[in-house]
Amino acid sequence: MAKQALILIDIQNDYFPQGKWPLEGVDTAADKAAQVLQAFRQAGHAVIHVRHEFTAEDAPFFTPGSEGAQLHAKVLNEANEPVVLKHFVNAFRGTDLRAVLERRAITEVVVAGSMSHMCIDAVVRAAADLGYKVTVLHDACATRDLEFNGQVIPAAQVHGAYMASLAFGYAGVVSTDEYLKAQAAV
Prior knowledge:
Isochorismatase-like_hydrls; alpha/beta; hydrolase activity; 5 helices; EC 3.5.2.19; two-stranded antiparallel ribbon; 34% helix; Nicotinamidase-related amidase; Isochorismatase-like_dom; globular; Rossmann fold
């Protein structure tokens, strides 16, 4: 039987409305992440939290040691849930994330968090390339408006484009409710 882990990516204070880098729909996404977090805990499945800190004190957000760089209260880790600290977009780069998964014999990962167009995209592609079966909970992820070539791309379009891309070749992309309903049927 496959062993799965929930990986919660960068659900940190700076991404929330009072933070330095607020995301569109972050509260709703964090609520969905908390819902699946509770389901994983109840089922006894592995949960891994990933927390980003930049290394420079003048970073635009997630500055070292700041309150903004801490995990948000909606998804705080419990004592048996490791927190992987990263300094790059890809949670596997320069961290022990792969070793944490291997120690637990994990073969499938479920991903939620922020930002859809950066750290979610990077960890999903890397996990798939490393041979993990990957599921992304699209409504438990958040992002923000982007600008390219003088045009503002709304967060919903950014999110949709990245989820469509991941669904095309890297992961199953489903809603939290769809995922939990499928798990209850197993």
